[in-house]
Amino acid sequence: MLASRPHGEPTQDNFRTEQVELAQPQSGEALLQTLYLSLDPYMRGRMSDAPSYAPPVQVGDTMVGATVSRVLQSQDPSLAEGDVVLGYGGWQTHSLEKAAHLRRLDTDAPVPVSTALGVLGMPGFTAYAGLLEIGRPQPGETVAVAAATGPVGSAVGQIAKVKGARAVGIAGGPEKVAYLRELGFDAAVDHRSPTFREDLAAACPDGIDVYFENVGGAVWDAVFPLLNTFARVPVCGLVAGYNATSLPEGPDRTPALMGTVLRKSLTLRGFIQTEFVERLTEPFVRDMTGWVADGSVGYREDVVDGLDNAVEAFRGLLRGDNFGKLVIKVAE
Ligand code: NDP
C-alpha cells in the first residue's frame, strides 16, 4: 500500500504491507494469484499528486501495476482455473479482477509469459508506436535512444534496425554498452563516462535524425546539438527527472531550445502510448511476435524474487540498477 507520498526518491517508509482476507469472485470476476508484477518508471508519477495524465494512487490504496497471474477461481465462462492472464492486479499477491479486463496468455508460446509485461507488452508497444508513428525512421538515417537496454529503448533501437536505420544506444556502464552491441546496435555509448559528449558525437558522424527521448537531463543536453534539420523527437519519458524536487539551475535555456526548434525545423512530439492502442495493437502484435521469433528483436528480463523486494527494486529502476525489463516474481 502507498503509505505516504514520496518527496524525491521513494523510501521504504512510503509503503506498508497489509494482510486481508481474500474476497470471493462475483459474477464476471476472477480471483487471481500474481505470478509476475511489472515495475515501470510511470509508477513514480502515480505515487505523486502532481498534475498528470492519469490520477494518482491515493494514500492507503494498493500500488497499481500490470501483472501476469494464474486464475484461482473464475465466475466467468471465458476463464478457467489454471489459466494464465495479463491483468492489472497491482502490488499484491492476489487480486480480484473483472474477466473482461483480462487477456489469456499462451503458456505454450516459445517465450515466457512474463514477456507480456515487456517486449510483447506495454513497453514494446510504446517503442513501436512512438518510433514508427512519430520518429518515422528512414533507411540510412541515424536513430538515437537512451535507457537503451530497458524494454522501451532496446525495442526502439532494434525496430530502427529492422527499418534500415542506424541505431545508436545510450546506456549506463560498460556492461550495458557491451550488451547493446550484442543486440546489433551500430554504436553504443556510456552516459556515465566523462567523455560521454565526445563519444556520442563520434558515434553519430552524420548527426541524429530521430532521437527517441526516454530520459532528459544531461543526455538530452548532449543529444540536442547533434540533431539534424528536420529531426523528429518522440518525447516518451524523462526518467532522469522523476525524483527531482526542483527545477535545474539556470540560466533559462528555453530560448536556445526554441531557437533551434525553429532554425532546424525540429519536431518534438510527446505521447502516451494509450493514444495508439486502438489503431496499432494488431500490427504491433503481428510485427513484434514475428521479430522476436526470427531474432530481429532480442530482449532481456531482470527478474527480482519476492514482492517484499518491490520497493528497493523500484528505487533501483530510477537509478539504472536494473538491466533489462524489471519484473518481480511474486509466485511460482
Ligand atoms: P527502463 O527499464 O529503461 O528503466 C529506466 C532506465 O533509465 C534505467 O535503467 C537507466 O538506464 C535510465 N536512467 C535513469 N536515470 C537516468 C539518467 N539520469 N540519465 C540517463 N539514463 C537514466 O525503463 P522503460 O524502458 O520501462 O522506460 C523507458 C522510458 O519510457 C521511461 O522514461 C518511461 O517513463 C517511458 N515510458 C513512456 C511511456 C509513454 O506512454 N509515454 C510508456 C512506457 C514507458 P541506464 O543504466 O542505461 O542509464
TrEMBL record:
Annotated SUPFAM superfamilies: GroES-like, NAD(P)-binding Rossmann-fold domains
Family matches, as SMART domains: PKS_ER
A Pfam family the protein falls into: ADH_zinc_N
An example molecular function term from Gene Ontology annotations: oxidoreductase activity, acting on the CH-CH group of donors, NAD or NADP as acceptor
Record domain Enoyl reductase (ER): where: 11-328
This protein's UniProt keywords: Oxidoreductase
InterPro entries referenced in this protein's UniProt entry, alphabetically: ADH-like_C, ADH_N_2, ER, GroES-like_sf, MDR_fam, NAD(P)-bd_dom_sf
PANTHER family to which the protein is assigned, alphabetical: PROSTAGLANDIN REDUCTASE (PTHR43205), PROSTAGLANDIN REDUCTASE 1 (PTHR43205:SF7)
Protein name stated in the entry: Enoyl reductase (ER) domain-containing protein
Source taxonomy: Bacteria, Bacillati, Actinomycetota, Actinomycetes, Micrococcales
